[in-house]
Design goal:
Length: 306
Amino acid sequence: MQQPLTSSTPTPARAELPVVFKRSLALMKPITWFGPMWAFLCGAIASGATTWSFPDLARILLGMLLGGPLLCGVSQVINDYFDREIDAINEPHRLIPSGLVSMRQIVVTVAVLLSLGVMVGLILGREVALMAAIGVVLAVLYSVPPFRAKRNGWIGNLLVGISYEGLAWMAGHLAFAPMTGPSLLIAVLYSLGAHGIMSVNDYKSIQGDRAGGIKTIPVLHGEKTAAWLVMATMVLAQVGVVVAFLVWGNWIVSLLVTLLILLQIWVGRRFLQRPEEHYLFFSVNGSMFFVWGMMIAAIGLRFVGA
């Protein structure tokens, strides 16, 4: 005889919920959240107004939630949907081209993330909410036709760098204090440097990008020339940071960032020689020195003009 369902027996609908949630989470690509979360933290520190108090720490965590899971997450879902035809060539096993995620789930995921993003942004203040709104607009311009800025690697990666680094840094600063000229300058420089990091990520999908008419930096300039352009973009932006701190009289920050630049160049040698083989290694290790430089600069800004 068939046993009756009890409260401990999962119904098909209840059993399906964890799978649906996991697939939405996968669409949000948690691995991509680090950049804007870190930039928000750096901006908050750069404001010079943060303390170790519980309210300040809670505010930082809310901002990192906004920049990472909510806004970066929603931008990844939007991008995956409009990349579905290219992904069918590059990675047909992914959730959308494989048909494992329905249109309804995509719409609900985007709606939930945007709603939560609006609420958290307003909690952190109108200026932070404005930065978040601009970030969402740039995400739409990056992925959605007819603009679809990602079709050109120079424009598309610039929009991503501004969103992930610049706007997130500014939001972190504005969550605690009015924006200052030095903090804005450093946010802009690291946004430009992040363009190179975005271009490294484009090596993984060169074949599909060519087929889909997506003119990334590797597609436009070839793999080896693109590697040198990546390195030059990252290094020149950080040299700007070094010069800025020298002008502001903080030679310690300039020295530390210079050392990180040299380490970045050192680990990038193999990438420059054989980018198609070593782009993942450089993406991880080269980016590590870049983001530590951001934190050093953020701490240094607390003493600018002090």
